[in-house]
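Supplementary Note 2. Why include the ligand at all?

Several targets in our set were suspected to adopt different conformations when bound, so apo predictions alone were not considered sufficient. For every target with a known small-molecule partner we therefore ran a joint prediction. The input for 6-O-phosphoryl inosine monophosphate is given below.
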Amino acid sequence: MANVTVIGAQWGDEGKGKIVDWLASRADAVVRFQGGHNAGHTLVVGDQTYKLSLLPSGIVTGTLSIIGNGVVLDPWHLKAEIAKLEGQGVEINTENFAIADNCPLILPLHRDLDALRETAAGAGKIGTTGRGIGPAYEDKVGRRAIRVCDLAHLDALDAQLDRLCAHHDALRAGFGQPPVDRAALLAELKEIAPFVLQYAQPVWKRLKKVRKAGARILFEGAQGVLLDVDHGTYPFVTSSNTVSGTAASGSGLGPNATGFVLGIVKAYTTRVGSGPFPTELEDATGQRLGERGHEFGTVTGRKRRCGWFDAVLVRQSCAISGVTGIALTKLDVLDGFETVRICTGYRLRGKILDYFPSHAADQAEVEPIYEDMEGWSGTTAGARSWADLPAQAIKYIQRVQELIETPVALVSTSPEREDTILVRDPFED
Ligand code: GDP
Ligand code: IMO
Ligand code: MG
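The joint prediction is reproduced in token form.
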């Protein structure tokens, strides 16, 4: 298998960015295939910290970085993120960066609608990142999206905007909002068009060439399987498919290109936004996990909810996403806990479940069944080899892989790029 597909196996923020950055130096191309700038990845390289939302994490190592058709793209955010990274010395040019010309755009009207709906939902809100992701995907599926290639046909854009605005104006009226300022939107699109178009191309062709040359492709997933619009904790999910299968449809390569599926798994569990979370800890232990793990969102700065490792959820994610092996991250956050707990099953109205049910009410009601393990007194922080790990930490890793029925390929022990233990090379598998 020459290619690797990285996906999050929980509710996002598992440390995908760090692992993609680490793997990127061994890849020839890195491709984002779904989501948008709702993602937030923190990469730490020496004394530099990079925060990425839309650009593939491979850009930091200068690896060819591609935004696939499955992504929803906010052109103004793109410009700002490129400027920010260039300010940190990262080189981004038409040689090392490309955008699929059939990528749908996120427009200010999508952000408006996202905010209007969330405000109207009150306590029932999803807790979105407010970046217009859901409304943009709706317009894509509704066949009225403006796409990157449309920016090269400005004469036809007027009529396209008529259709799109007719839809949005009706929705906005329902919220007591004025219609879209169509003229201003058209002017903004005309202004940003040349910037976006310099990177635009049919990336499937570029990828076909890369593949034919025998090069290694790294597919970079955003969010996590439990936020998948089909398989996640619906309706508290994002609006794309986050599973590994999307790597093919979201990039323009067939399913046989996916290669080794590397599920990124945090050694405990976190979630941002609303929705069920069986092992959530609303006590001092949860607080401690959040503090030790610096669990604040990269995109919104929101505090992430924290809880023990849920083996039922991860086993399900690995099965649904065909995970070949996992990267277990943030093991160091568990350093110093006297006892660590793992959820091995659920109790639901007197019944024992070995899976996470589909209905939101059942998901909210399941009670975790825990297995307790002795913690470790030594430290895993900064470990770069298996031999550096305390015996009890190794036992924890072994128990995790047994319960999730999937082997561990990598272990991450700090935010720093090089603090990574390679157990099984996904590119050589
Ligand atoms: P992503 O969205 O999956 O890329 O993850 P985020 O970057 O949003 O969140 C993961 C956070 O944990 C980031 O701040 C990383 O720098 C940090 N991180 C990644 N791996 C490790 C690790 O092994 N240990 C610790 N302590 N932090 C890590
Ligand atoms: P990365 O790639 C964690 C969550 C939001 C919300 C739900 C829907 O950094 O792991 P959206 O704006 O997508 O419509 O919000 O999904 N969410 C994430 N949570 N990590 C992410 O990305 C997320 N992207 C979206 O908090 O609950
Ligand atoms: Mg994140």
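Residues 108-196 form a domain with the Adenylosuccinate Synthetase, subunit A; domain 2 fold (CATH 1.10.300.10). The chain has a mean pLDDT of 96. Comparable summaries for the other entries are listed in the accompanying table.
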